[in-house]
């Protein structure tokens, strides 16, 4: 499966939006979005005209896909899952993305970015209900307890991530025990609760894949 290995700040510049791919750097003055740097390419001003309907839908899909660090095939499969679920497809898509194990570990501040959280999961540092799970896309359900293994709790990246709990707390659909380095997925989030996706229009993704 193809994986992007280039500079991730370039992705934020492409979307002209903070995708929060590098943890603390995204909140600092070093962030290219804070510096109002132009989109990458030889002639970015030449591409600032009005986008087509398809172009707008495509950019919205790319934005969401990149925020969650997913490949195209994996993202499309998640959309197909959301389509089969009862309810609003766009909201189902956000719910499925937010209940991925790597995202939950990130939301619990076990890491400072989703990519770091994914590495924690892949390297078998994370358990779900007491059992090691090393699949980043594993779907967490309400009541599941996500915890960092005992011998991994002192890892620098974990401790760095936990510092954020006192600064910004955790999402309302989660609870966290900083001392035990574990948290509980209380319920699926409501769409309005996912505040860092407030300007994301997931309906455009639904329209794109429905063509």
Give a short overview.
The protein is of the alpha+beta class and 211 residues long.
Describe the secondary structure blueprint for this structure.
Elements: H1 9-15, H2 53-67, H3 72-84, H4 89-98, H5 101-107, H6 114-122, E1 126-128, E2 131-132, E3 145-148, H7 156-168, E4 174-177, E5 182-185, H8 202-209
Antiparallel strand pairs: 1-2, 1-3, 3-5, 4-5
Supply database-style keywords:
single chain; 211 residues; 5-stranded antiparallel sheet; 39% helix; globular
Describe, in plain words, how this protein is organized in 3D.
With 211 residues, this protein is of the alpha+beta class. Helix content is 39%, strand content 8%. It has eight helices and five strands. It has a five-stranded antiparallel beta sheet, covered by helices on one side. A hairpin with a 2-residue loop joins strand 1 and strand 2. Helix 5 crosses helix 6. The radius of gyration is 18 Å and the shape is globular. The two termini are 25 Å apart.
Count of DSSP strands: 5
Q: Write the element-wise H/E pattern from the N-terminal end onward.
A: HHHHHHEEEHEEH
Using only C-alpha atoms, the radius of gyration works out to: 18 Å
Based on helices, strands and strand pairing, what is the structural class? alpha+beta
| Number of discrete helical segments | 8
Point out poorly predicted stretches. Answer: none
Strand content: 5-15%
């Amino acid at each position: 499966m193809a994986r992007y290995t280039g500079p991730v700040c370039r992705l934020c510049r492409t979307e002209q939006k903070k995708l929060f791919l590098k943890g603390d750097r995204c909140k600092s003055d070093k962030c290219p979005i804070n510096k109002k740097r132009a989109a990458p390419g030889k002639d970015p001003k030449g591409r600032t005209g009005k986008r087509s309907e398809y172009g707008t839908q495509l950019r919205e899909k790319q934005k969401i896909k990149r925020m969650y660090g997913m490949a195209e095939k994996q993202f499309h499969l998640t959309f197909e899952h959301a389509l089969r679920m009862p309810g609003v497809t766009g909201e189902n898509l956000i719910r499925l993305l937010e209940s991925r194990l790597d995202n939950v570990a990130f939301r619990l501040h076990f890491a400072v970015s989703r990519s770091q959280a994914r590495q924690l999961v892949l390297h078998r540092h994370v358990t779900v209900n007491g059992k090691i799970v090393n699949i980043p896309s594993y779907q967490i359900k309400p009541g599941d307890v996500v915890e960092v293994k005992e011998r991994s709790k002192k890892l620098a990246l974990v401790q760095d991530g936990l510092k954020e709990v006192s600064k910004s707390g955790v999402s309302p659909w989660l609870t966290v025990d900083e001392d035990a380095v574990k948290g509980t997925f209380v319920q699926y989030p409501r769409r309005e609760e996912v505040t860092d996706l407030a300007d994301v229009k997931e309906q455009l993704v639904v329209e794109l894949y429905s063509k």
